Amino acid sequence: xxxxxxxxxxxxxxxxxxxxxxxxxxxxxxxxxxxxxxxxxxxxxxxxxxxxxxxxxxxxxxxxxxxxxxxxxxxxxxxxxxxxxxxxxxxxxxxxxxxxxxxxxxxxxxxxxxxxxxxxxxxxxxxxxxxxx
Length: 133
Description:
Elements: H1 6-31, H2 41-48, H3 52-63, H4 67-85, H5 90-96, H6 102-113, H7 117-132
Helix pairs in contact: 1-3, 2-3, 4-6, 4-7, 5-6
């Protein structure tokens, strides 16, 4: 068996680290309203100057998860934060997170959290009512 050169092992971790940095910057751009659409795999790959398939395979090799998993996880975390910490209307939360249709935001949120945005928010409202009394 031929050993894998260290340079190759290092490059995959470099790509992964660059992806996480780009993802953080992209989420910040979304929250600041600087972008109106969420990146797709090809957008991240383009910014790293590699082929989308190579990009996706590298992230999966290093993390055992797809790049989409990480992006969706971050969007869900921001949605949960906004729903629990602000009184911003649910549709507006969705728009702020690049969902063009409130229905799509609700479907996304329910698929990944198991609850609708309203159900999620209501659990915080109910818990505040019980702690105030």
